[in-house]
Please model this.
Amino acid sequence: MSGGGATGLAEQLGMYGTQQSAAAGFFPGSRWGASGWSDSNGNLWFFGGWGWASTLAQGTGFLDDIWEYHTTGPDAGLWTWWKGSSNVNESGNYPTYLPVFYGVPFVQNQPGARRGVALWQQDSQGYVWVFGGQGVDTQGNNGYLGEFWTYLPFPY
Model:
């Protein structure tokens, strides 16, 4: 249906373009271990994994990007890169002004790069729930993570 670079070939780099813009020529890189869901419009979403980001010089690593594949509407057949980095092995962004247990929503919060998370479909308020995985902690170390995140796809 859609891919990037040379269709049918492995090890393809992503073409990230501009966040929040669906356009021909934007697509995620090759990867495995990403977790995905479908929204109420039938569009397909995924988060993270292990694979190729945007430049060959970086090689492979853990990813923290969120992509949507549009199955309907004016953007049908196109990808949108919504959030996360176009680099590999990025640490997360966590709130530093309040204790973590407050669970404060903030647009700059971002889980660190990871693969193999447990993911639940959108709840009645539109949130996707994510737990754990293997990836990069706040200090850039590789390990198993025990964090719980919620994500509200835009626009909901």
